[in-house]
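Sanity check. The docking grid for NAP depends on where the pocket ends up, so I'm generating a full predicted complex first rather than guessing from homology. Inputs follow.
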Amino acid sequence: MLIVAKKISIIGASGYTGGELLRWALMHPEMEVFQITSERFAGQSAYKLNPNLRGFTTLAFSPVKQLSTDVDAIFICTPHKTAAPYVAQFLETGAKIIDLSADFRLKNKDTYAKYYAVHPHPELLEKAVYGIPELHREEIKNAKLVACAGCLATSVILPLAPLIKNKLILPEGIIADSKIGSSAGGAGFDISTHHPERSGTVRSYKPSGHRHTAEIEQELSALALSQVSVGLTPHGIEMVRGILSTVHARLSGKAADIDLWKAYRSFFAGSPFVRLVKDQNTLYRYPEPKPLVGTNFADIGWEIDPEKGRVIVMSAIDNLVKGSGGQAIQCFNLMNGLDEKTGLWHPGFHPL
Ligand SMILES: NC(=O)c1ccc[n+]([C@@H]2O[C@H](COP(=O)([O-])OP(=O)(O)OC[C@H]3O[C@@H](n4cnc5c(N)ncnc54)[C@H](OP(=O)(O)O)[C@@H]3O)[C@@H](O)[C@H]2O)c1
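Predicted complex below; grid placement will be based on this.
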């Protein structure tokens, strides 16, 4: 059978998520990267910003105004609030749209206004499917517009989803404590990301009210069929890529380890990128971000604390892969009738 590669374009390809997406797209057996955009670096070769891509592409950046819409899919990797106008502009062109920003993740325009700004295209919110395949696989297959989940949100929603769905934990008082690498802040810089200020730090930068709280609560409440309340406290740490979220929740009853194994195994059956990591007698007993660098895996582990009636859930991802570029390719695969592992099945490195 002759396979015709899908033509794709990436808006915002000079950034960290766009560069990572470009890396995966260039290696994808059924994708042809047609155009990549940057306003600041228009005319320059992609490999000059992404030295890892030297020898893999001769593409140069174009400004968005030169973007051709004669493609099968457009990925948007620009900051929130800048992506919405592009989605509105390109949604009716026939190209499938995969937006990596936060602009179409929330269903409720008032919630978007609370965390971001007044939404310029609230009429399009209902057209978007939230881009976590493990939760919305069937809807993503038929979607024209996918709003990829936030990186922190992915790392908190995935480990909680089976517990919430099976009512194994109480829906309130859940606390997610996340450690996150510096690439989550994007390729732009300010004093907070300047090396002498950032290096060696463990820094809490948004102890409450982080904007990903909104999508975490939206998705978990939909699974619970009732309001779920989650507090999210991220910390910037000495790491470039990766997230480790440690989530604390109260058990709703006397669940045993076997009940959690069953809930996780059943929820993630058929989800190749979620691995349960809960071992004894090994160095790697629980999830860690480091072995996941450059992979699309989400590793999940847990421990029940019976004395306190609580469960501690650990979840690790690479923010630039399962937290953005890789998850976007996973969604693209589903939207195009491909096996979701296509072009993404990579074990990472050890040691690193
Ligand atoms: N970093 C992560 O871990 C992560 C994870 C999940 C989701 N996200 C989301 O993904 C998006 C991109 O994040 P990032 O970390 O890749 O940011 P980034 O490194 O700062 O890159 C931003 C990109 O957007 C382009 N851009 C900015 N404003 C634009 C505009 N008005 N029109 C066209 N292009 C514009 C920039 O191009 P120029 O060269 O022209 O400046 C650059 O290519 C954000 O919405 C972010 O929240 C990021």
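Relevant for the grid: Residues 11-18, 38-41, 64, 77-80, 82, 100-102, 150-151, 183-184, 186-188, 319-320, 323-324 surround NAP (CB under 6 Å).
Also worth noting: The longest strand covers residues 230-237.
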